[in-house]
Amino acid sequence: MNQNLPESNTSQRIDDDEIDLLDIADFFLSHWKKLLLGSLVGALLGMFGSIYFLPFQAELILDNKLIQAGELSQGAGRRASKLVQAGGLSRGAGKRAFDYVSWRSTSISLPNLAAQMLAKQVVPDKQVAVFENMSSRKWWAKNVQPVYSVDIKEAKKLRLAKGATGDSILYFQINATHQDKQQAIDNSLVAASFIKSGAKYVQLTSYLSSLRGEISASVSDANNWISRDKIALGYKQKRLASLEALRNKYLSDEMQDVQQVGEVREQSAKFLPIITQIIAINREVIDIQEDLQKYHDVLANMEQKRLFLEQAEQLVDEGRYDGERIFASMFELHEKMQQAISEGNLIQEAAMDEIDSRLTNIHTGLAFGLSQSTAPRAEKKGGAKYAAIGLFLGFFLVLAWALVQKLRGQLEERHKGESIKS
Question: Would 108 be classed as within a structural domain?
Answer without folding.
Answer: no
